[in-house]
Amino acid sequence: MGTLNPDEDVDELEDIIDDLEDLMQLDRDAVKAYEIALDKVSDRAVREDLLMFKLDHERHVDDLARIVVRLGGEPEDRGNLRGLLSETLAVIRGSRGTLGALKAIRMSEKLTNTMYAKTLEEPLTIDAREVVEANRDDERRHLVAIKGHLARLDHDYFDDEEEDDLVTHGQHDDRPPLILQR
Q1: What residue segments make up the domains of the chain, in order of their start?
Q2: Residue 179 has pLDDT above 90, yes or no
Q3: pTM score, two decimals?
Q4: Average pLDDT for residues 101-110, to the nearest whole number?
Q5: What is the percent of the chain where pLDDT is above 70?
Q6: CA nearest 71: which of 119, 17, 24?
Q7: Angle at CA of residue 21, ends 18 and 25, nearest 5°
Q8: Superfamily of domain 13-170
Q9: Distance between CA 113 and CA 168 in Å, rounded?
C-alpha cells in the first residue's frame, strides 16, 4: 500500500480528482433522468424506489464533492457525460408509462455500475475508495431493484444475467485494489 505524497504525485491526484468528477457528473445526469422518469411512473412501488434512488444519486454527488475538495480540487459541473443524459432522456421522454421509464433507467444504471467498477480499478485514496465502493454498492442495489420491477411488470422481460454480472461486479474483482494514502 503506497503513500501518496502530494508533492511527488500531483499527476496521480489530478487523475483521481478527474475520475471522481466523472462519477459526480454521471450521478448528476442520473438525478435528471430520475426526475423525468418519475413523471412517467404510475406504479407506487416503482415510484417509491425511484424517489429513493434519486436521493442516493444526490448524496453520491455530495459525498464525491467532499472528497474532491479534500484532495484539493474544485467540483465542477461538466455537463452531459458521454451523451448519456441526452440518450436516456430521449428514451424516457419517448417512452410510455412505467415500463418505458424503467427500461430507460435500467440502461442508465448499467452504465453507472460499469463506471463505478472501472473507477475502482484505478488508484484511489483510502477515503475516495470508501465512498466509491459505497456508491457502487448503491448502484448495484438500484439495478437489482429495477430488474425486479421489470420482471414483475413485464412478463416478456428477459434478464441477461451473464452480461449484468460483468457490469455490476467487474471482471477484476479478484485483484487487490490499489489504495493510496493522503
Answers
A1: 13-170
A2: no
A3: 0.79
A4: 91
A5: 73
A6: 17
A7: 140
A8: Ferritin, core subunit, four-helix bundle (1.20.1260.10)
A9: 5
